[in-house]
Write a structure and sequence with these properties.
Elements: H1 5-11, H2 15-22, H3 28-33, H4 36-45, H5 54-78, H6 87-102, H7 105-108, E1 133-139, E2 144-150
Antiparallel strand pairs: 1-2
Keywords: Membrane, Transmembrane, Transmembrane helix
Transmembrane segments: 39-65
Length: 151
Amino acid sequence: MEEDLDHILRRCPPTPSLWSSLVKTEGWTEFLSLPMKDWLFANIVSPIKFVSDTLYWLLLFPYILWNIWKRRNDKVFGGESERRESVYVQSVHMVEMGVLRGTSVHLANNNSQQDVGRDLVWCRPPIGWCKLNTDGSVDKTTNFALCGGVI
């Protein structure tokens, strides 16, 4: 079986059972059948087809993708993942920490530590491909980690 992005994010066990527990029954067929680029777009722009709580979905969906991707890479490149939490539980935790910590971002910017910046250049993907750019960080004082991505 080809390990393409569609396989990893939608079809590789245990992701189908995760998605089926979250997606509305009436949207399930479309959720699985959309081409990858359209699927990503639909879940970001008009998730109402698939879920009832669209605001929460807009926060949760990228974290689920990140955790699925991370676990697959951990398994392929580093042996089995050591994470005991499910992808869903870990993703919900990441959303909650991001929402809770987001209210105090302005305080973190006023501390004595300096922001470290670097110039990055974005490159357009080849025609027919979509690109997922991700980043993450860890607060060493609290061990909270956050990640995000842009499609």
